């Protein structure tokens, strides 16, 4: 019996590669070569499934060239690389990897908030550069985290896991805005107050972004929103590039219109806006919020499980568009 063909677009953990090879005729990319859209299209032709990493654009033009394709399995929770309407019309299932990364990503959100508010990166650069000659009472004095007000924009699973840490561990007051208001019982757990974006920005000491990227959430934070924030506030983005207008943010940081920012994601990453690289009051990390060895393995495992379950048995663990799928 001929085995179904799948494409793995990037390097993958070796045990998971082996598992996929037990089920499918696999084309891998263990050298982790960079493929442009044309190369992805060329390699995806004739494949029944694809393991993806959240950055490979899957749209109508690509799907038109890949009539055999039945599933694209992201190993990320974010799926803004998928045009789900086009995929549904082409009968292609999209899956993502929710839940398994929630706690590690929430840990990182708190870590980035702490590093930013407490100016850890600035202090480290200063020390490494040999500038530290003596203690001073105001050396890298930052903003208080415990007892302060945290504004969370995007109160899904990760937002709630951060709220739990912030409220229970740091005694923070939680305000949030979200597409829909949470149940009163959930709000009560963290004593969280639902506000509109403007009210949240005006009262939060720290603003943390953890919402999905969609055309509607593009530049959720731009010039006008930065102007609403306290001059002592910090802004943390662990969501997606494009949710913040990075040029406007760099200018606000340079002019000290807000105190500091912590960014794990960037518009057009891996490129970083050059103005962000030259302002001192920003902590920059290379999209690693979910990057623990165990969590990245769990995310990849979920994508692998989705491919095996769907191509072998017609079911998926975390489908995104099963109900809308046009069956050929
Ligand atoms: C996700 O899972 O969406 C994270 O941002 C990792 O890319």
Write the layout of secondary structure elements.
Blueprint: E1 5-8, H1 14-23, E2 25-27, H2 37-44, E3 49-52, H3 60-64, E4 71-74, H4 84-89, E5 93-95, H5 102-117, H6 120-128, E6 149-153, H7 157-170, E7 173-177, H8 184-190, E8 193-194, H9 197-203, E9 206-209, H10 223-228, E10 234-237, H11 246-254, E11 260-263, H12 274-278, E12 282-284, H13 293-313
Parallel strand pairs: 1-2, 1-3, 3-4, 4-5, 6-7, 6-9, 7-8, 9-10, 10-11, 11-12
Helix pairs in contact: 1-13, 5-7
Bound molecules: (2R)-2,3-dihydroxypropanoic acid.
The site of (2R)-2,3-dihydroxypropanoic acid (DGY) has 6 residues, from loops.
Description of the molecule:
The protein is an alpha/beta fold and 328 residues long. Helices cover 38% and strands 14% of the residues. It has 13 helices and twelve strands. The chain has helices at residues 14-23, 37-44, 60-64, 84-89, 102-117, 120-128, 157-170, 184-190, 197-203, 223-228, 246-254, 274-278, 293-313, and strands spanning 5-8, 25-27, 49-52, 71-74, 93-95, 149-153, 173-177, 193-194, 206-209, 234-237, 260-263, 282-284. The strands form two sheets. A seven-stranded parallel beta sheet has the order 8-7-6-9-10-11-12, sandwiched between helices. Strands 2-1-3-4-5 form a five-stranded parallel beta sheet. The protein is globular and about 75 Å long. The model has no long low-confidence stretch (mean pLDDT 97). The site of (2R)-2,3-dihydroxypropanoic acid has 6 residues, from loops.
């Amino acid at each position: 019996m001929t085995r179904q063909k799948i494409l793995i677009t990037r390097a993958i953990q070796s045990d998971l590669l082996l598992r996929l090879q037990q089920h499918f005729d696999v084309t891998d990319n263990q050298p982790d070569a960079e493929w442009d859209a044309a190369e992805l299209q060329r390699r995806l032709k004739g494949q029944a499934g694809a393991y993806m990493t959240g950055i490979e654009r899957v749209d109508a033009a690509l799907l038109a060239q890949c009539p055999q394709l039945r599933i694209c399995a992201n190993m990320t929770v974010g799926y803004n690389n998928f045009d789900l309407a086009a995929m549904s019309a082409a009968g292609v299932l999209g899956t993502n990897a929710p839940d398994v990364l929630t706690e590690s990503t929430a840990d990182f959100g708190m870590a980035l908030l702490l590093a930013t508010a407490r100016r850890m990166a600035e202090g480290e650069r200063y020390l490494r550069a040999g500038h530290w000659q003596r203690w001073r009472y105001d050396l890298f004095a930052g903003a208080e985290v415990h007892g302060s007000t945290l504004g969370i924009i995007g109160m899904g699973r990760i937002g709630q896991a951060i709220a739990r840490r912030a409220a229970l561990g740091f005694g923070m007051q939680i305000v949030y805005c979200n597409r829909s208001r949470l149940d009163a019982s959930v709000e009560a757990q963290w004593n969280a107050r639902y506000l509109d974006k403007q009210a949240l920005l005006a009262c939060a000491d720290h603003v943390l972004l953890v919402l999905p990227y969609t055309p509607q959430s593009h530049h959720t934070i731009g010039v006008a929103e930065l102007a609403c924030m306290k001059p002592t506030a910090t802004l943390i983005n662990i969501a997606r590039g494009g949710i913040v207008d990075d040029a406007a943010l760099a200018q606000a940081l340079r002019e000290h219109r807000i105190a500091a920012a912590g960014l794990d994601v960037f518009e057009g990453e891996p490129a970083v806006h050059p103005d962000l690289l030259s302002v001192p009051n920003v902590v920059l990390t290379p999209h690693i919020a979910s990057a623990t060895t165990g969590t990245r393995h769990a995310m990849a495992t979920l994508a692998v499980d989705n491919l095996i379950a769907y191509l072998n048995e017609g079911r998926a663990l975390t489908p995104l568009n099963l109900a809308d799928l046009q069956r050929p």
